[in-house]
Amino acid sequence: MGTVLKLAGGLAVVFVSFLATLWALDTFGSGCPAGERFELKRPFAVVNGRAFLSSQPALTILSDTTTSPTRSPLLLCEGNIALGPPHTQHADIVAKGAGRFSHWGPDVIFSSSDGADPNTNGQTYVAVKPR
Fold first, then answer.
1. Chain segment 63-97, per-residue pLDDT in tens
2. What are phi and psi of 96, to 5 degrees?
3. Hey, which bits of the chain come out as E strands?
């Protein structure tokens, strides 16, 4: 009986991991979600490393703050691919890139999915306020 329970428990862990993977693929790295769209315009300022900046003053009211570090509802898309994770610390965006981004004050600080310079990679970048 103990072996059966261990097997069932192991299958449950595999199933939950599978569902989590599907959720992550659906949330990040899939199609750009529906919602109000704000195209980020070039040229993007180079922050450092892999991080670039687009100032979006009209979106300041939605941004993360020190007291609400995950307040911003914005998602970021490169072409039709959702980037992420959002609310990433700026040092991680600089060091790791790979689509990480943050919406802080008037600025969207972000990295391209592949480490390329978003000023010259030919991709369109759009901030989306989901419905």
1. 999 999 999 999 999 999 999 999 999 999 999 99
2. -105, -30
3. 35-39, 45-48, 51-55, 75-78, 81-82, 101-104, 107-110, 125-130
